[in-house]
């Protein structure tokens, strides 16, 4: 199945000597990179890993020989390869020489050079609903930014299918599976994180019970701006004492293996002086991590509609991040002192921006549209420019444009 980042990878290879593809384990980095490469070095190959590491210690340039682009999979197992690739790119003076993939960020100071100007970075997330062929893609984010707001379309996704999709997640190995088999992968992923990956990333042993409690607290507070204090109090309710320093250390490890993917706050220029909240929203790289660590399933999600709303926002956040990236954009959230907020702000590199609210049910659409229009009125358009569009993403069926100009689009109709 093709990925939206395939074109982005080709563009990066044409402009840089090497490309680093980063992202969580099992999100498809190796498959994506191998399709674009002509030779491959698998650092985790059990038959050869020992000799590869020995070679990296003595003469790393030998590992770089091969047809280009050459894929070096899980390069962080031998961090010296980063500087070797950078040096080789300088020596060859050609683009598209190497693709590096990594599911963990190495500790600080393991590389002598940042790679700026030689190594381009590309983030790969789990598959969006458009990539897993569950969104029909009738409404394009790029077209919306280009002014095409004629959004008459219909989604085929039911609420039950949305609940299943977010519990299954966007893991490539699970999207073609059915039923309990498809749901199993997110559970296996979470157990691997708790019992192995989170300690492996910095070689500091971490208490699996505390990691599990931290993940559960983050899951309960998904799509909120919960503070460390809130998370700590939540964890301590189970009679486990934990310090700020411990939470900070564990969170840093979870970020370095791309499990935690918080959504930063947007700080635009406003017409009047209003304090803007700067706290990030708590998110995982995929909402299935939340449902897996809480040991719930699609039926359990449907039984708690309030929590379903937060999970749906997390699902929309994942997909909009994928779609925004293909348009050279970033995603934020907005909240100010008065309580006015927007769940998602998409800002393109050229300065264009759009505000999005996420509402699972139909009853909240009017309120969401009112919020978006109030936010638009508060932004200093002389400095920020006018909003390209205002949109409410729903779990419903129909896409349309309201009389006030606000777009209503089901998640099952969106693409990049």
Q: Tell the overall outline.
A: globular
User: What summary fits the major beta sheet?
Assistant: 7 strands, mixed
Q: What is the overall number of helices? A: 15
Roughly how much helix do the residues carry, as a percent range? 25-40%
Distance between the termini: 16 Å
The string of secondary-structure elements, in order, is: HEHEHEHEEEHEHHHHHHHHEEEHHEEEE
| Residues in β-strands, percent | 15-25%
List keywords for this structure.
single chain, 416 residues, alpha/beta, Rossmann fold, 2 domains, 7-stranded mixed β-sheet, 5-stranded parallel β-sheet, 15 helices, 14 strands, globular
Write the topology of this structure.
Elements: H1 5-15, E1 18-22, H2 29-35, E2 39-42, H3 49-58, E3 70-73, H4 80-92, E4 98-102, E5 119-123, E6 139-140, H5 141-145, E7 153-154, H6 159-168, H7 179-200, H8 208-220, H9 228-236, H10 244-256, H11 288-293, H12 298-303, H13 305-326, E8 329-335, E9 341-348, E10 353-359, H14 365-378, H15 381-384, E11 390-394, E12 398-401, E13 407-410, E14 414-415
Parallel strand pairs: 1-4, 1-5, 2-3, 3-4, 6-14, 10-11, 11-13
Antiparallel strand pairs: 7-12, 8-9, 9-10, 12-13
Helix pairs in contact: 8-9
